[in-house]
Specification:
Shape: globular
Largest sheet: 6 strands, parallel
CATH topology of the largest domain: Rossmann fold
CATH class of the largest domain: Alpha Beta
CATH superfamily of the largest domain: HUPs
Bound molecules: 5'-O-[(L-methionyl)-sulphamoyl]adenosine
Structural class: alpha/beta
Number of strands: 25
Distance between the termini: 74 Å
Strand content: 15-25%
Number of domains: 3
Strand order of the largest sheet: 3-2-1-12-13-7
Number of helices: 20
CATH architecture of the largest domain: 3-Layer(aba) Sandwich
Length: about 625
């Protein structure tokens, strides 16, 4: 194998539940990385898959009245179709029941046994079936799993153990040498302190369970599901038989996942690799959780966002095709979240992102430029050159910054750079006044402008293509320019005289949108009635219009934001519990209603000198803002 390579993985999923936006997020992130790397002509291996040898599966199969094998064969199709419908182009969907995986796992066990890293012993302790995790007595007051909150079970059986304890120093040395191998930094620190607290050997077999990969030299045991699952990352490279591809692709360039499974990936997995004498992955990138109503999504809480429903609703509401709606959700997930932090899904955020970024910014740019091309050139691309030196510089800078940010998985910022460029193009239309150029008979300048804008749209389409592949291909083919490769990011690749096909309104605006759990499905709330007050009491309140000048999340708090609010000539600090509903930077410059004469109080040690007004229900929270423009400090009565 030749040339540069990039190997990216997602966790392999437990397929006993339905996929939701959290699973989609990791998998689309990997797809974005894979498409981006392919744009830059790297050989990519992108894998995802299913973790099937777990007790969860046995239980779910029983419930469905099926044999485990029949059950997983049925379920896995759902997951594959799900990813396919979101335009995920993985190279391999590995199943832990696949023959080559079973062979790879058994090879690892034999090798580690021969080198003395696996030994037999007695395991007594607590186990959580849902997380497939062994817990120490000290971890579980009340016999409740600290990860999922479900009951744990006592296990006492003869097991095989892996000598994890032998790798404490080697792991600490590795992480000291490669501090960037776990990102974000906070996760790196978490892992290092986990290792410093000491490592115990771990049980890696179960004798009371039949479903799973048999131990190669003791068939009474099956291999512990996590030990088996982690090895999928080797299986897909051809390990241990196809040495060429294995040596080419291994080590993985990045393992993606969320924070719940870092102990397995950053402690146990590298120790297994060290024991095998294999290089460690270049990076584990840990992203945050998608939350709804401030909580991690889970089936039991009934707050799961079903991406299929989002697509269906969006397509119904706007009339765009489902494949374009898929692009919109893919874009939203990465424009909205900072990769590494938690993110909140609300209809309001989804709608405003769509209306601002797509209907307004990108959609408008395309429709204005295409309309001018239609009107003056009968849809033919005019022979032009770059409109201005500024535009040339701006294109070059956009591409350089985009590459740098994408290389570091800073998707949100990469998209911000692209959108800043889109808006620059929109501004260029206003400042260059094309209709006046025509009136003044400056035809060549006008041609240069239209050609440059069409070129800019083509370049934007390539840059957003990892996120919005359908959109990118539609735009490129309308321009007669199909390639998504990096070399086509250069200005001037668009051929003259091609007749463009008009795209109509690419992103019609959304007026209403409803994709969260319907209110009817939520628990009924008892209306709280308050006692009547007279007007004097109400008039004691000094309600004013305030202008938010600064907003920052309060460190260590999931809910609180610290706001600096201007109320007339005064500036005051207000601590508000709105972090799960607004992104701080979006609050700046908003006008709100402030209770100005509330006695100061301390929240989490930070002084709050007032309160803001907001309305909330089960679907979310909205700030009360003035309907017309009005000065800060104005009295509300
Ligand atoms: N089977 C194990 C992984 C084995 S990998 C060798 C497992 N499976 S899982 O189905 O529970 O998937 C967990 C992964 O799904 C997370 O690490 C994350 O990538 C993704 N997500 C599941 N819920 C999520 C959110 N609410 N938000 C973001 N991603 C989350 O653990």
């Amino acid at each position: 194998m030749k040339g540069s390579k990039f190997y990216v993985t997602t966790p392999i999923y437990y397929i006993s539940g339905d996929p939701h936006i959290g699973h989609l997020y990791t998998t689309v992130a990997a797809d974005i990385i894979a498409r981006y790397k392919k744009m830059r002509t790297t050989n990519v291996l992108f894998t995802t898959g299913s973790d099937e040898n777990s007790l969860k599966i046995v239980k779910a199969a029983q419930k469905a009245g099926k044999e485990p094998r029949e059950y997983v064969d049925d379920e896995v199709e759902k997951w594959k179709n799900f990813f396919k419908s979101f335009n995920v182009q993985y190279d391999r969907f590995v199943r832990t029941t696949d023959e080559d995986h079973i062979k790879a796992v058994q090879h690892v066990i034999k090798t580690l046994h021969q080198s003395g890293y696996i030994y037999k012993g007695k395991y007594e302790g607590w186990y959580c079936v849902d997380c497939e995790t062994f817990w120490l007595e000290s971890d579980i007051p009340n016999q409740i799993c600290p990860s999922c909150g479900r009951e744990v079970h006592w296990i006492s059986e003869d097991n095989y153990f892996f000598k994890l304890s032998a790798f404490q120093k080697a792991l600490l040395d590795h992480y000291e040498a490669y501090p960037k191998s776990i990102e974000p930094e906070s996760r790196f620190n978490e892992v290092v302190s986990m290792i410093k607290m000491g490592l115990n050997d771990i049980s890696i077999s179960r004798s009371s369970v039949q479903w799973g990969i048999p131990f190669p030299f003791d068939e009474k045991h099956v291999i512990y599901v996590w030990f088996d699952a982690l090895i999928n990352y080797l299986t897909v490279t051809g390990y241990p038989n196809e040495l060429d591809t294995f040596m080419y692709y291994w080590p993985a360039n990045v393992h993606l996942m969320s924070k719940d499974i870092i102990r397995f990936h950053c402690v146990i997995w590298p120790a297994m690799l060290l024991a095998l004498g294999l290089p460690l992955p270049e990076k584990v990138y840990v992203h945050g959780w998608w939350l709804t109503s401030g909580e991690k999504m889970s089936k039991s809480k009934g707050n799961v966002i079903d991406p299929n429903l989002v697509i269906e609703d969006l397509s119904k509401e706007t009339g765009i095709s489902t494949s374009l709606a898929v692009d919109v959700l893919r874009l939203f997930m990465f424009r909205e979240s900072t990769f590494g932090d938690d993110a909140i899904f609300t209809d309001a955020r989804f709608t405003s992102r769509y209306n601002f970024d797509l209907a307004n910014d990108l959609g408008n740019l395309i429709s204005r430029v295409y309309a001018m091309t239609h009107k003056t050139f009968n849809d033919e691309i005019p022979a032009g050159t770059i409109f201005s030196e500024n535009l040339r510089i701006s294109i070059l800078e956009t591409i350089t910054q985009y590459f740098d940010l994408m290389d570091h998985f800073r998707f949100k910022e990469a998209l911000e750079i692209v959108w800043a460029f889109i808006n620059e193009c929109n501004k260029l239309i206003e400042t260059s006044k094309p209709w006046e150029l025509l009136k003044q008979n400056q035809l060549q300048l006008y041609k240069n402008l239209i050609y440059s804008l069409l070129e800019s749209i083509r370049i934007v389409a390539i840059l957003v293509s990892p996120f919005m592949p359908t959109f990118a291909n539609t735009v490129l083919s309308s321009l007669g320019a199909r390639s998504l490769k990096e070399e086509n990011l250069a200005f001037g690749k668009l051929g003259f005289n091609h007749v463009i096909s008009q795209l109509g309104v690419t992103f019609p605006r959304i007026k209403t949108f409803q994709s969260e759990v319907p209110v009817s499905k939520k628990k009924e709330k008892v209306e709280e009635k308050k006692e009547m007050v007279d007007i004097d009491l109400f008039q004691k309140l000094d309600l004013r219009i305030g202008l938010i000048e600064k907003a920052e999340k309060l460190e260590g708090s999931e809910k609180l934001v610290v706001l600096q609010v201007r109320v007339g000539s005064e500036s005051k600090q207000i601590v508000a519990g709105i972090a799960q509903h607004y992104i701080p930077e979006d609050l700046v410059n908003k006008k709100i209603v402030v209770v100005n004469n509330l006695k100061p109080a301390k929240l989490r040690g930070v002084e709050s000198q007032g309160m803001l007004l907001a309305a909330s229900n089960e679907l979310g929270l909205t700030l009360i803002t003035p309907e017309k423009e009005i000065d800060s400090g104005s009295v509300v009565k």
